[in-house]
């Protein structure tokens, strides 16, 4: 495009689209008023006609035509519109197209598009080719205005462009799968990019069209495509880097994003490439994770606003241009030709879908002939066809008499397809049943509606306790807030009750819900600072890649196969290490499949080869002697020069390698650490997503068999991921320690920011002080970008600080430091065995072990355990930081599990005698702290969804007694005060309700109907969570107990074993 820019600068002639040149002094001051009028009119019409965009655009087009006719007959009006009709067509294209194409590409899900990229590319190429041939033939055959071949070709390309915005807008409002909207929109973006490249080549060669050659076009297209994609990719990386700055506010984000769009477009066009393709690449490489939380919504709304305004201006300007031309050429044949073009455009779309349907059917199990019918009507034309229409006249060698006819045909076809095709597309989707939700999904929606109604009812119950609201008409409130389930399809509630979906159907629907929960978890973890953007994008990409595979639950091994660690880096490092330190033996094995490389390896790295090198160095002494002998030097001058050059080259090469190899080694080490850190973050984020999904599976499906199967799948996948974490930590302990340390710092600063926001909102800190403190904390967060990738592990005695019931107590730490010992275990060693008495507790320092056991008994004897409950086998992986044997040591009872080393393991061992000596010395605080730690762990493990709003950090519970542990022996009683006790959870043993004699077995939340309990086990432990506001705790806790879907009806209770079974 650079040639075009220069040619425009040199040209002095007015580039009139139509009409006559001005024979008066032209002033541009009134044109701004026209633009403002069009924007205001478009906004008013859009407000009045909210769901009729085509009517708004039609009115704007007609209004523009009227203004154009007035300009044709009036000098005053002509003076207003003259700046428009003399504006170069490429200038209009450059003003409006960047934001629109960027907005369209940004709305496409890159991960979905990547899975069907080749199918989308093939669809776009077939559609573009079919449009060029068929529409071009129709234009030559049925048009009476004698257009030449070049004009017909440009016209067919213009009409072949599918609008990337309107082609899917109608489908998005009726709940069509995003896979198909992205497929249509991706195809539209590809066609727009191809058309822009095609027009760009002709535009840049506008002065030398006579020497245009096919080879030149091919080279230009290749350079345009690859150059634009590469430039767009790096621009996306720059935008991501800029938006990642913590100190940028929302306004700066919007300005930067908007300006970078135009800057990218203009730079790429000036360099002679395609700005449209570059911006499409930028938009596809940006996603919701690129923007800060809540800013994406604002930026998207801002871009949509400008896209809508630009669209209104384009249609109004096109109407003005048409109105400024001659109307004597409008005949009855013009209408006939428009109808022929409309039919042809849809036939081209039908032919395209017929050709690509076999490929789409093989690549996507959901695609069928119904989707083909809907996609046939998706060939909607829009703003890009109008922006390219003026170039048909400008770029052709043979100028036509009425250039505005190109714009007229394109604009009318655009409005027809926007109205008729959009209507037919939505009606086809509805009539063919593509909008009907599956029966399992309708059941899930019905359950969600009931759940929302329960929340509303509980909120009303809570408000009834407010003294200021005692005289409210609560009957009217309940009547006005009642929500009834409204079916989203043609299936009635009676038919839903008659039909009973199979487990396979319900599992498939639940699988899709689990995938959505996982992706939401990944995004939440990124927003909370737990996951880096690359790890979150990788996990979301993997989830979207495996989501279309029927029956496939994504495991950690699937994620690993989706993004393979760069194993070649490790092999490359081994080679460099071997070259750098020849004397050290390293584990480098050449590929056995390649006989040549194996032979070369054995020759080069043999002792004989090394001796040969020393011999060659000694041989060089002979040429040196010859050099010193004058007669011999004269006779062998050229040979000596060649030998000198040869040996000097060898010495320089050897010296260079000695310098470069250590540098390459350090670079490779850094890259390996980055990849391992990323892999650990990905695995950690996956584990968290499995835990989040497990909390919500009760809401996904109410059928018990489905719930059990889902829980089993999620637990198995979680344990596999935990095992991977242990293996990664064994391979790169330094990297994992650095990553954990960095995350701990991030969590502490994030908590400080939350507290600062609270103090700021309550007026304790004024605005200026809050801003300054916020800057200090953000600087510390930003400094984490330079945090080292690896940190050496602390000494074993430092690990005692990681035991939570020793944390912050130097006296306790010093006491156990003198008594603790290091224990080493090899692969396969048994740390402790089921049925044996405990020897002490083990704090794992490094390595991984697997724990095999039946489900915990929680101190309940077989005679007390209900007959309906069975103990299932389970396994759990223990890694660095985990403690083994706490409960058994506290109770002095046989161990209920077997722990076997999966890797070489190092642990800090505290014997049972030393532990009880500590109990005696620090009585009773030490033993109580261990029980509190175990009680909090059990409560979170089984009832996290109920306790999600509670701050049960161990240190806070110790300092402020927010949660504490009560002990009950057999026949001992405890009164439950619902005013001060928010939750009462039995974490060990069993109790009964003294009033109803209903038994409760650990782990279990005691219901609010229970006023007093009595211990029925030798030892029972209850975790009491106190209410922060005693006067409202009773109503609050009742609300929470009934809001959570896991809780039963009043009078019933939930147990942890019910959740596990």
Automatic annotation (TrEMBL):
<dbReference type="InterPro" id="IPR018490">
    <property type="entry name" value="cNMP-bd_dom_sf"/>
</dbReference>
<feature type="transmembrane region" description="Helical">
    <location>
        <begin position="372"/>
        <end position="393"/>
    </location>
</feature>
<feature type="transmembrane region" description="Helical">
    <location>
        <begin position="214"/>
        <end position="234"/>
    </location>
</feature>
<keyword id="KW-0812">Transmembrane</keyword>
<dbReference type="Pfam" id="PF00999">
    <property type="entry name" value="Na_H_Exchanger"/>
</dbReference>
<dbReference type="GO" id="GO:0015386">
    <property type="term" value="F:potassium:proton antiporter activity"/>
</dbReference>
<feature type="domain" description="Cyclic nucleotide-binding">
    <location>
        <begin position="824"/>
        <end position="903"/>
    </location>
</feature>
<keyword id="KW-1133">Transmembrane helix</keyword>
<feature type="transmembrane region" description="Helical">
    <location>
        <begin position="644"/>
        <end position="668"/>
    </location>
</feature>
<keyword id="KW-0813">Transport</keyword>
<feature type="transmembrane region" description="Helical">
    <location>
        <begin position="120"/>
        <end position="140"/>
    </location>
</feature>
<dbReference type="InterPro" id="IPR006153">
    <property type="entry name" value="Cation/H_exchanger_TM"/>
</dbReference>
<dbReference type="InterPro" id="IPR000595">
    <property type="entry name" value="cNMP-bd_dom"/>
</dbReference>
<dbReference type="GO" id="GO:0015385">
    <property type="term" value="F:sodium:proton antiporter activity"/>
</dbReference>
<dbReference type="InterPro" id="IPR014710">
    <property type="entry name" value="RmlC-like_jellyroll"/>
</dbReference>
<keyword id="KW-0406">Ion transport</keyword>
<feature type="transmembrane region" description="Helical">
    <location>
        <begin position="271"/>
        <end position="290"/>
    </location>
</feature>
<feature type="transmembrane region" description="Helical">
    <location>
        <begin position="302"/>
        <end position="323"/>
    </location>
</feature>
<feature type="transmembrane region" description="Helical">
    <location>
        <begin position="183"/>
        <end position="202"/>
    </location>
</feature>
<keyword id="KW-0739">Sodium transport</keyword>
<dbReference type="GO" id="GO:0005886">
    <property type="term" value="C:plasma membrane"/>
</dbReference>
<feature type="transmembrane region" description="Helical">
    <location>
        <begin position="92"/>
        <end position="113"/>
    </location>
</feature>
<feature type="transmembrane region" description="Helical">
    <location>
        <begin position="405"/>
        <end position="424"/>
    </location>
</feature>
<dbReference type="Pfam" id="PF00027">
    <property type="entry name" value="cNMP_binding"/>
</dbReference>
<feature type="transmembrane region" description="Helical">
    <location>
        <begin position="246"/>
        <end position="265"/>
    </location>
</feature>
<keyword id="KW-0472">Membrane</keyword>
<feature type="transmembrane region" description="Helical">
    <location>
        <begin position="335"/>
        <end position="360"/>
    </location>
</feature>
<dbReference type="GO" id="GO:0051453">
    <property type="term" value="P:regulation of intracellular pH"/>
</dbReference>
<feature type="transmembrane region" description="Helical">
    <location>
        <begin position="31"/>
        <end position="49"/>
    </location>
</feature>
<comment type="similarity">
    <text>Belongs to the monovalent cation:proton antiporter 1 (CPA1) transporter (TC 2.A.36) family.</text>
</comment>
<dbReference type="GO" id="GO:0098719">
    <property type="term" value="P:sodium ion import across plasma membrane"/>
</dbReference>
<keyword id="KW-0915">Sodium</keyword>
<feature type="transmembrane region" description="Helical">
    <location>
        <begin position="54"/>
        <end position="72"/>
    </location>
</feature>
<protein>
    <submittedName>
        <fullName>Solute carrier family 9 member C2 (putative)</fullName>
    </submittedName>
</protein>
<dbReference type="InterPro" id="IPR018422">
    <property type="entry name" value="Cation/H_exchanger_CPA1"/>
</dbReference>
């Amino acid at each position: 495009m650079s040639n075009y820019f220069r040619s425009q600068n040199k040209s002095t002639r007015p580039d009139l689209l139509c009409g006559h040149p001005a024979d008066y002094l032209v002033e541009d001051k009134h044109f701004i008023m026209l633009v403002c009028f069009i924007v205001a009119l478009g906004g008013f019409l859009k407000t009045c006609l909210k769901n009729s965009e085509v009517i708004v655009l039609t009115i704007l087009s007609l209004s523009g035509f009227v203004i154009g006719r007035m300009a044709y007959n009036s000098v005053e009006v002509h003076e207003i519109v003259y700046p428009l009709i003399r504006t170069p067509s490429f200038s209009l294209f450059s003003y409006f197209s960047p934001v629109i194409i960027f907005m369209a590409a940004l709305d496409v899900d890159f991960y979905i598009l990547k899975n069907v990229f080749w199918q989308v590319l093939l669809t776009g190429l077939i559609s573009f080719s079919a449009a060029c041939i068929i529409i071009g033939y129709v234009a030559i055959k049925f048009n009476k205005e004698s257009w030449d071949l070049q004009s017909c070709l440009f016209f067919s390309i213009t009409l072949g462009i599918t609008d990337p915005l309107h082609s899917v807008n109608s489908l998005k409002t009726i709940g069509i799968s995003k896979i198909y909207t992205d497929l249509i929109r991706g195809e539209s973006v590809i066609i727009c990019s191809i058309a822009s490249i095609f027009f760009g080549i002709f535009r840049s060669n506008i002065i030398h069209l006579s020497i245009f050659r096919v080879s030149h076009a091919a080279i230009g297209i290749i350079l345009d495509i690859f150059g634009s994609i590469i430039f767009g990719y790096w621009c996306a990386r720059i935008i991501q880097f800029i938006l990642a700055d913590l100190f940028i506010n929302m306004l700066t984000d919007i300005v930067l994003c908007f300006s970078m769009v135009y800057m990218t477009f203009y730079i790429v066009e000036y360099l002679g490439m395609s700005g449209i393709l570059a911006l499409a690449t930028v938009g596809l490489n940006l996603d919701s994770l690129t923007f800060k939380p809540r800013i994406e919504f604002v930026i998207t709304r801002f871009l949509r606003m400008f896209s809508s305004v630009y669209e209104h201006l384009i249609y109004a300007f096109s109407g003005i241009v048409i109105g400024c031309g001659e109307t004597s050429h409008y005949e009855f044949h013009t209408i006939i030709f428009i109808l022929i073009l409309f039919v042809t455009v849809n036939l081209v779309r039908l032919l395209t879908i017929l050709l690509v349907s076999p490929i789409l059917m093989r690549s996507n199990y959901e695609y069928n002939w119904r989707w083909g019918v809907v996609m046939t009507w998706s060939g909607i034309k829009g703003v890009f066809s109008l922006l390219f229409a003026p170039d048909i006249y400008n770029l052709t060698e043979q100028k036509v008499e009425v250039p505005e006819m190109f714009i007229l045909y394109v604009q009318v076809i655009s409005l027809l397809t926007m109205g008729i095709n959009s209507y037919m597309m939505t009606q086809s989707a509805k009539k063919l049943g593509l909008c009907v939700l599956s029966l399992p999904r309708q059941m899930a929606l019905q359950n969600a509606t009931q759940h929302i109604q329960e929340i509303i009812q509980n909120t009303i119950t809570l408000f009834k306790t407010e003294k200021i609201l005692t005289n409210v008409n609560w009957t009217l409130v309940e009547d006005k807030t009642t929500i009834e389930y409204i079916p989203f399809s043609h299936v009635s509630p009676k038919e839903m009750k008659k039909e009973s979906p199979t487990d396979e159907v319900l599992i498939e629907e639940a699988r899709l819900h689990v995938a959505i929960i996982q992706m939401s978890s990944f995004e939440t973890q990124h927003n909370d600072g737990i996951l880096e953007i690359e790890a979150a994008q990788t996990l979301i990409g993997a989830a979207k890649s495996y989501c279309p595979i029927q029956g496939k639950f994504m495991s950690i091994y699937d994620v690993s196969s989706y993004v393979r660690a760069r194993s070649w880096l490790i092999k490359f490092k081994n080679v460099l290490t071997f070259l750098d330190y020849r004397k050290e033996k390293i584990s480098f094995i050449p590929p056995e499949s390649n006989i040549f490389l194996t032979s070369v390896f054995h020759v080069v790295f043999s002792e004989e080869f090394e001796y040969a090198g020393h011999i060659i160095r000694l041989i060089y002494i002979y040429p040196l002697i010859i050099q010193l002998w004058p007669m011999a030097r004269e006779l062998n001058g050229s040979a000596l020069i060649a030998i000198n050059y040869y040996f000097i080259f060898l010495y320089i090469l050897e010296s260079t390698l000695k310098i470069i190899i250590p540098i390459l080694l350090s670079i490779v080490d850094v890259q390996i650490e980055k990849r391992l850190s990323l892999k650990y973050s990905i695995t950690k984020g996956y584990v968290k997503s499995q835990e989040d999904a497990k909390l919500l599976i009760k809401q996904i499906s109410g059928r018990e068999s489905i719930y059990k199967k889902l829980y089993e799948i999620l637990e198995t996948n979680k344990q596999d991921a935990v095992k991977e974490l242990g293996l990664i930590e064994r391979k790169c302990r330094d990297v994992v320690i650095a990553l954990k340390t960095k995350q701990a710092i991030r969590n502490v600063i994030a908590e400080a920011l939350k507290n600062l926001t609270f103090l700021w909102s309550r007026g304790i800190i004024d605005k200026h002080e809050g801003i300054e403190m916020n800057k200090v904390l953000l600087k510390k967060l930003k400094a984490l970008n330079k945090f080292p990738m690896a940190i050496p592990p602390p000494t074993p005695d430092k690990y005692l600080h990681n035991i939570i019931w020793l944390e912050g107590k130097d006296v306790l730490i010093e006491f156990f430091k003198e008594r603790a010992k290091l224990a080493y275990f090899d692969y396969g060693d048994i740390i402790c065995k089921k049925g044996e008495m405990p020897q002490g507790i083990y704090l794992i320092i490094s390595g991984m072990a697997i724990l095999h056991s039946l489900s915990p008994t929680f101190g309940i004897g077989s005679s007390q355990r209900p007959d309906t409950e069975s103990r299932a086998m389970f396994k759990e992986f223990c890694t660095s930081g985990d403690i083994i044997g706490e409960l058994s040591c506290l109770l002095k009872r046989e161990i209920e599990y077997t722990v076997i080393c999966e890797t070489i393991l190092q642990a800090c061992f505290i014997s049972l005698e030393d532990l009880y000596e500590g109990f005696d010395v620090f009585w009773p605080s030490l033993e109580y702290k261990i029980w509190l730690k175990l009680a909090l762990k059990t409560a979170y493990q089984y009832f996290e969804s109920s306790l999600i709003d509670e701050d049960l950090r161990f240190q806070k519970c110790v300092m402020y007694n927010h949660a504490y542990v009560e002990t009950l022996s057999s026949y001992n009683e405890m009164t439950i005060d619902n005013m001060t006790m928010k939750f009462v959870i039995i974490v060990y043993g069993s109790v009964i309700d003294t009033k109803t004699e209903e038994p409760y077995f650990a782990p279990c939340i005691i219901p609010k109907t229970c006023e007093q309990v009595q211990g029925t086990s030798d030892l029972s432990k209850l975790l009491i969570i106190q209410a922060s506001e005693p006067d409202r705790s009773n109503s609050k806790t009742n609300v929470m107990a009934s809001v959570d879907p896991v809780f039963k009806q009043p009078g019933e209770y939930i147990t942890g074993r019910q959740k596990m079974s």
